Amino acid sequence: MAVCIAIIGKENAPKYVACTEKDQELDFHYKVHSSLDIIEEKLSATSLTKGTDLREQCLGLLYATEEHKIYGYVTNTKIKIVIVIDANHTGLRDNEIRAMFRKLHGAYADAVCNPFYIPGDPITSKKFCETVHGLLVKS
Question: Keywords assigned by UniProt (predicted)?
Fold first, then answer.
């Protein structure tokens, strides 16, 4: 489904990035980091608006290019999850994107709750990697 999945820390440092196309990995890093400005903008707009449900963590479509669509999600602890999807994949609905984010959020929570995980370090959990690679499109 996805061509790139990234977990970004509170200070916008990447904790985990996985891509299907290794030759375009730098391009995906650029797209993920450029989406962080939009995430921060949406978060500040949400916090300024009164009566807005702050529990809504899925930010939806951040922006689209000719080749990709970038979606964002923010946890309560300000960890950002970014999913890049191929623009040609039109069969993906909004509830499927939300399900992918919930699955990634659960896997992330399991990975950082490991007593051997050091907070702030990149994620190296094999189970987390398997979950992410299960959501990536096989080329």
Answer: ER-Golgi transport, Transport
